[in-house]
């Protein structure tokens, strides 16, 4: 069994901060960060060889490691800086006509709601944020609510595998299967998934998928991927037209040429994926993640009771990973977040989803019951002594 106390010492986070916000940007353990610095030093020691000569092979080796980890073909992956960038590639190129609809939920990440709204408005299509009732009571109920937004004008579905503000695992596999029966394109935002819960691309069978490696896979910031099924890759142009278009030395894949050959940039973060995968496997991260989920679940109802709310879903692995969102009553969410950080040195997000507000805590290997007890005590004091939070 993995020694969690030893793993805690590998992270570079400020020990004075109680860090309960791994879900936003992750954090690099030392071995992965040192690998990142190794690549950066190699780049600076011989920039021309690194970028113009060896870069394609470096990226290929990294894609192969990622493909092995998430079970797909390496040629169906390209690296991007973040999932928002990836979905912009898709939304910009997707052929939408007036009246077409993209079916989603009202639980999606705000930046991607904006992305779809922007491109749908340009083509006079519609982005449908289908309401999902909270708390969720069952997969069947959620799936039924989602498909109420479907009609003959629906062209594609866009859905998160783990939502951001509400931290819910959605039944994406089941929804993708039903979408295929209806002949719909399936686009999945898996920003929080790699390294967090099991991901098997061949099993999931989404047409398009994006995931962040800089969150739960613990790669350096700005390391994510876009997966597109082979038969659809020709549909999607890069956001920046560069050397990969009408390349003088084309590879076997236009998809790779278009999206990898993007001019001068430091892609060192992308090259740390083999080390990240090695780290996860070496330290039995399946067991680590399971222990973190249990710690988070064991405290969830306790926080809900304190804050006068209820869990957003049944307390099971079907709906929860290592992040937990608690509905809260506050008129000053941003001020509450700063108060927790400045007065208690607790790093935790207070997020908005339309009119709803959530306090969201993450549990990673370096967290313990004492961290959650510190948060609980802080919330008790805030309720008693300020007007920032109502129980």
Describe this structure in words.
It contains 14 helices and twelve strands. It is α/β, with parallel strands linked by helices and 391 residues long. The strands form three sheets. Strands 2-8-7-6-5-3-4 form a seven-stranded mixed β-sheet, sandwiched between helices. It has a three-stranded antiparallel β-sheet with strand order 9-12-11. The longest helix is centred in the first third of the chain and has 24 residues. The chain is globular, with a radius of gyration of 21 Å. The two termini are 40 Å apart.
Report the end-to-end length measured between terminal Cα atoms. 40 Å
C-alpha Rg (nearest Å) = 21 Å
Helix-residue proportion? 40-55%
The biggest beta sheet is recorded as:
7 strands, mixed
Mean pLDDT, rounded to whole units? 96
Helix-strand makeup class:
alpha/beta
Question: Looking at the structure, what is the overall shape?
Answer: globular
Summary?
With 391 residues, this protein is of the alpha/beta class.
Helices, strands, pairings?
Elements: H1 4-8, E1 18-19, H2 22-25, H3 30-45, H4 47-70, E2 77-80, H5 83-93, E3 101-105, H6 110-123, E4 126-130, H7 139-147, E5 154-160, H8 172-181, E6 185-190, H9 201-204, E7 208-212, E8 224-228, H10 254-260, H11 273-282, H12 285-306, E9 323-327, H13 333-344, E10 346-347, E11 350-353, E12 356-362, H14 369-385
Parallel strand pairs: 1-10, 3-4, 3-5, 5-6, 6-7
Antiparallel strand pairs: 2-8, 7-8, 9-12, 11-12
Helix pairs in contact: 3-4, 5-6, 12-14
């Amino acid at each position: 069994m993995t020694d969690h106390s030893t793993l805690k010492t590998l992270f570079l986070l400020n020990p004075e901060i109680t860090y309960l916000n791994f879900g936003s940007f992750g954090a690099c353990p030392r071995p992965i960060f040192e690998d990142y610095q190794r690549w950066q030093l190699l780049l600076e020691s011989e920039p021309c060889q690194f970028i113009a000569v060896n870069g394609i092979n470096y990226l290929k080796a990294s894609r192969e490691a990622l493909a092995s980890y998430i079970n797909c073909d390496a040629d169906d992956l390209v690296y991007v800086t973040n999932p928002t960038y990836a979905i912009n590639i898709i939304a910009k190129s997707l052929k939408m006509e007036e009246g077409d609809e993209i079916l989603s939920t009202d639980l999606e990440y705000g930046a991607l709601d904006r992305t779809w709204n922007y491109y749908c408005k340009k083509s006079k299509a519609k982005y449908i944020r289908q309401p999902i009732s909270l708390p969720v009571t069952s997969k069947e109920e959620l799936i039924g609510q989602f498909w109420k937004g479907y009609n003959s004008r629906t062209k594609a579905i866009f859905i998160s595998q783990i939502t951001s503000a509400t931290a819910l695992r959605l039944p994406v596999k089941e929804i993708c299967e039903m979408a295929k029966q209806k002949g719909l394109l399936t686009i999945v935002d898996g920003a929080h998934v790699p390294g967090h819960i099991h991901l098997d691309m061949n099993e999931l069978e989404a047409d398009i998928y994006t995931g962040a490696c800089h969150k739960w896979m613990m790669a350096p910031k700005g390391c994510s991927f876009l997966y597109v099924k082979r038969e659809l890759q020709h549909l999607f142009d890069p956001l920046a037209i560069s050397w990969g278009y009408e390349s003088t030395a084309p590879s076997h894949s236009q998809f790779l040429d278009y999206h990898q050959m993007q001019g001068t940039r430091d892609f060192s973060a992308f090259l740390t994926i083999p080390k990240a995968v090695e780290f996860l496997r070496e330290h039995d991260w399946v067991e680590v993640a399971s222990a973190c989920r249990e710690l988070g679940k064991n405290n969830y109802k306790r926080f809900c009771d304190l804050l006068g709310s209820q869990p957003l879903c049944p307390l099971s692995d079907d709906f929860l990973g290592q992040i937990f969102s608690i509905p809260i009553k506050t008129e000053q969410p941003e001020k509450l977040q700063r108060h927790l950080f400045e007065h208690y040195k607790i790093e935790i997000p207070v997020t908005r989803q339309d009119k709803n507000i959530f306090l969201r805590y993450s549990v990673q290997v370096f967290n313990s019951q004492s961290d959650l007890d510190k948060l609980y005590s802080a919330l008790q004091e805030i309720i008693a002594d300020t007007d920032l939070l109502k129980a």
